[in-house]
Amino acid sequence: MLKEISLADVRGLVGTETGLSDWIVVDQTMIDAFADATHDHQFIHTDPVRAAESPFGGTIAHGFLTLSLLSTMNYNCLPKVREQTMGINYGFDAVRFAAPVKAGARIRGRFVLAEARFRGAGMLMTTYEVTIEIENERKPALTARWTTIIQFDPKDRPEDV
């Protein structure tokens, strides 16, 4: 995978897989910390004894915890745009939590650049088809369309756009 690209190169990557992150272990400590931060202490996340009796057979990560890990996956594997001065989350479309992430599981993100378009003098809007895979599982934990904005100095805008 590419480590760094220029603004002029981004549109040429549309339709290609541009990143595959390292595996991340989602352990009970991480799940508990997320529960504390969000005040979501539902037993399927935080009570291993009670959750063992659920259809999941143990605790599972919050769907929003799984979604939030896309940020670290992004930084881990997507090529950096040389001219970027700042990145901004714009939003998600069609987020689906397809399978639970059991405590102790390893997950990783797969990113396909679906769209890249310049907006205004100093913004590039990118949309990724993202999938969070669970190691040794057929179904992904999550799929979504994630749109971000790359800000850059207008003087760095490619001439052909």
From TrEMBL:
Name of protein: Acyl dehydratase
Lineage of source species: Bacteria, Pseudomonadati, Pseudomonadota, Alphaproteobacteria, Hyphomicrobiales
Origin: domain of life: Bacteria
Domain MaoC-like per the UniProt entry, residue ranges: 14-119
UniProt source species: Rhizobium metallidurans
Gene3D superfamilies with a match to the protein in the record: Hotdog Thioesterase (3.10.129.10)
